[in-house]
Each structure stands twice: as C-alpha cells, then as structure tokens.
Amino acid sequence: MERQIKLIWDFRGPDALKTAEHQEIHLKEFIVIEQLPISISGFQQINEFHSIAFIVVNDEMMRKVRDVLKPHRGELYSDIA
Question: What pTM did the predictor assign?
Fold first, then answer.
C-alpha cells in the first residue's frame, strides 16, 4: 500500500471552526477542477480556538499539491482508529 500524507491547514481563534469548514469547500473545489484522485478531505475542531482542514494525498502527488496549496503542515495518514 502506498504511503498517504495528510496535508493540514490550521486555523485559530473564535471563528476557527467556520474557517476550517469553509477551507474544506475550497479544497474540494480544487480536487474537482484539477481532477485529482483524492477522496479523503475534512475539517475537525481540535478545541474551542483551534480547528483544521485537511486532505489526504498519496506520496507521489504530495509535492505537487503541497507546492500549489501551501498547507501549514503534514503528517503520515493512517485510517486505523
């Protein structure tokens, strides 16, 4: 199985959750426009003042997507809970 990378955008402050939710909309639009084989995206509230938006890409396309979208950070992705 190919390694997957979770690209993450961090948002902080009282509107962080709404901003992260809105960012995911733009990420999904990008995926459609660029016809990318990306099926995992989302947003998550970490705490009251910190939320994230994310997409999961395979290792092969990580650099291309990273350079265009400029996420704040990335981490190895595992769907095992």
Answer: 0.92
